[in-house]
Design brief:
Blueprint: H1 6-12, H2 38-45, H3 60-73, E1 77-81, H4 84-93, E2 101-105, H5 110-122, E3 126-130, H6 136-140, E4 147-153, H7 165-174, E5 179-182, H8 187-190, E6 200-204, E7 218-222, H9 236-239, H10 250-254, H11 258-271, H12 277-288, H13 290-309, E8 314-318, H14 328-334, E9 342-347, H15 350-360, E10 365-366, E11 376-378, H16 390-395, E12 402-406, H17 412-424
The chain binds pyridoxal-5'-phosphate (PLP).
């Protein structure tokens, strides 16, 4: 762990210029890297020596930003990916292959749900979907001999279910597999899943980390805590020779960095979902102000949630910061400084009233995005979760009348005035 606090890590970590070098992280806009010695280049290809040779595998700009996120999460190694989708795909596929099985929380983001239950199914990886609030005894039943990981979100998008990380970590470890958690909504500012037993963390950096809706990106961080070699028969990809790299064994050669090194040298090499260095640069700028923005997002969201809760036309409000919320206590345990800036609510007038209200908002825009500086709204049932049937919607915690409000960092009075005028002009039922 770093000696610095998160606010300082966000500014100072990653790029560490030597005397005379640029103060600000440079964009290494280069696909390739030059060498004088052909032998040295050969050693790089054999993973005998660390260094850059082709940006599909590694790029210095990306590595600096990954190192910053790694430090924020308290991990040992990290990599950037082109999107959050790519991060979750690689995080799972790095340890699962055809014939393997994943235990997944039902409330994960719609994109992850499709990825794992549809696309990865076609690759021969099966999945059991579980209710994250079910008691451990019930969840036990989802595990099989071929289970290789558990996947969930710290704060589910958009259901805002807060994960009992310790419960899930204990379950995963009892079955000799790692817990992978998508920490996109909480960010490492509000929650560090590794402290509670998670083994691998993923992010859609597209959201709060970038924070300005400028660049799609993702990240995977490894805690280094999961002992792959203790269950070597379950994880042959990490613990037996890789023929595509002259028989190296990742756990033997790279120790705690084995998981990320394998993801880079196999998955990035073969599937190529690299983040562009331009986007990594923008992400780094976003990270510098992440603690300030998260504080404001949470403050504004709390005020909006309280306003909506007291409004006569609002049927229900879901925000873990409200004392009556099902996840209030658990959120206080895992995220004592706040959760995120996303709220969901339903109007008494149902689905139709929701659509009308959204059309009347002036400041909050209808966009397929959450978690950036601008206040925005979305109707999950007809937008992000459109592919799901009613049963799947219910399992994912998405009601047909639910409006997802991503509270930005504008002045709180302006946001509430906008909500107020839009609600005033829609009928009761
Ligand atoms: C947006 C999101 C993703 C997907 O990320 P992209 O960057 O859009 O590919 C994954 N998980 C969560 C929780 C998200 O909110």
């Amino acid at each position: 762990m770093s000696a610095y606090r998160k606010e300082t890590i966000c500014i100072q970590s990653g790029w560490k210029p030597k005397s005379g070098e640029p103060r600000v992280l440079p964009i290494y806009q280069s696909t390739t890297f030059k060498y004088e010695d052909s032998e040295q280049m050969g050693r790089l290809f054999d993973l005998e020596e660390a260094g850059y040779f082709y940006s599909r595998l590694q790029n210095p700009t990306n590595d600096c930003v990954a190192a910053k996120i790694c430090e924020l999460e308290g991990g040992v190694a990290a990599m950037l990916t082109s999107s959050g989708q790519a991060a979750n795909y690689y995080a799972i596929f790095n340890i699962c292959e055809a014939g393997d099985h994943v235990v997944m929380s039902s409330t994960v983001y719609g994109g992850s749900f499709n990825l794992i239950t549809c696309t990865m199914k076609k690759m021969g990886i099966s999945c059991t979907v579980v209710d994250p609030d079910a008691p451990a005894k019930e969840l036990e039943k989802a595990f099989q001999d071929n289970t290789k990981c558990v996947f969930a979100e710290t704060i589910a998008n958009p259901a805002l279910v807060v994960l009992d990380i310790e419960k899930f970590a204990a379950l995963a470890h009892a079955h000799q597999v790692p817990l992978i958690v998508d920490n996109t909504f909480a960010t490492p500012i509000n929650c560090n899943p590794f402290q509670w037993g998670a083994d691998i963390v993923t992010h859609s950096t597209t959201k709060y980390m970038d924070g300005h809706a400028m660049a799609v990106g993702g990240c995977i961080v490894d805690s280094g805590n999961f002992d792959w070699t203790a269950y070597a028969d379950k994880f042959p990809g990490l613990c037996t020779p890789d023929e595509s790299y002259h028989g190296i064994v990742y756990t033997e050669k790279f120790g705690k960095a084995a998981y990320i090194t394998k993801a880079t040298s196999q998955l990035m090499r073969d599937l190529g979902s690299i983040q562009s260095p331009q986007n990594a640069f923008l992400l780094n700028v976003g990270l510098e102000t992440l603690p300030l923005r998260m504080e404001r997002h949470c403050y504004n969201a709390q005020k909006c949630a309280e306003f909506l809760e007291g409004h006569e036309k609002v049927a229900w409000v879901n925000y873990p910061g409200l004392p009556g919320n099902k996840y209030y206590e658990i959120a206080k345990k895992y995220m004592p400084n706040g959760t995120c800036g996303v709220i969901s609510f339903g109007l008494k007038g149902g689905r139709e009233a929701a659509a009308k209200m959204m059309d009347r908002l002036k400041l909050a825009a209808i966009v397929t995005h959450v978690a950036d500086a601008r206040t925005s709204v979305l109707h999950p049932a007809s937008h992000t979760h459109r592919q799901m049937n009613d049963e799947q919607l219910k399992e994912a915690g998405v009601a047909p009348e639910m409006v997802r409000l991503s509270v930005g960092i504008e002045h709180i009075d302006d946001i509430i005035e906008d909500l107020s005028q839009a609600l005033a002009s829609c009928e009761e039922a």
